[in-house]
Amino acid sequence: MFALSGCVRELRYITIGAYQISLLLLIVCVACPIVLSATYYLWATKTIPLSVEEPLSIVESPSTLHTHPGENQTLDVTIVNAAMVNYSVTLVFSLNNTAYQDSYVTFSNYTYTITPNTNQVTAWMVIDNRANSVFLELTVEFYRA
């Protein structure tokens, strides 16, 4: 018997061939390399969250437009580029009435180079002379080329 901190414990041994090996020693010898390997892996490996975000945003555009059939209307749009590289961007304009848009409205179709920071781009739309009066909503989107 073996006394430890006032408690009586029995040490167990296992016999391997002509040798008697302490069970506690055997457990430590098996567990120690596993724990050391796991500790090394955790110390040598670092997981870092990564997000790839949209660098461009439209920050300003006309809030209301009034035009007449046959007129050319200028559309000033401000785009901010949060990245440190240039992007090619196509502005896409759409009305909430696609039949009206297809029949009477033409939008500019340019590709703009958007540099870092704030960029002012100018587009245009033309309403056909035959267009009738209507109240519509205009949506402005961009696509990086």
Give short descriptive properties of this protein.
145 residues; 20% helix; four-stranded antiparallel sheet; disordered N terminus; 43% strand; 2 domains; Immunoglobulin-like; 2 helices; alpha+beta; three-stranded antiparallel sheet; 11 strands
Distance between the termini: 80 Å
**Assembly level:** single chain
Q: If classified by CATH, what would the architecture of the largest domain be? A: Sandwich
| Mean of pLDDT | 88
The largest pleated sheet is described as: 4 strands, antiparallel
Strand composition percent: 35-45%
Radius of gyration: 36 Å
Number of self-contained structural domains: 2
Q: Low-confidence parts lasting 5 or more residues at pLDDT below 50?
A: 1-8
Q: How helix-rich are the residues, as a percent range?
A: 10-25%
How are the elements arranged and paired?
Layout: E1 2-4, E2 7-9, E3 13-16, E4 19-22, H1 23-44, E5 56-60, E6 72-81, E7 87-95, H2 98-104, E8 105-107, E9 111-114, E10 117-127, E11 138-144
Antiparallel strand pairs: 1-2, 3-4, 5-6, 6-10, 7-9, 7-11, 8-10
Q: Can you walk through the features of this model?
A:
By secondary structure, the chain is an alpha+beta fold. The chain has two domains: 43 residues, no CATH class; 89 residues, Immunoglobulin-like, CATH 2.60.40. It is 20% helix and 43% strand. The protein contains two helices and eleven strands, in the order ββββαβββαββββ. The strands form four sheets. It has a four-stranded antiparallel beta sheet. The N terminus is likely disordered.
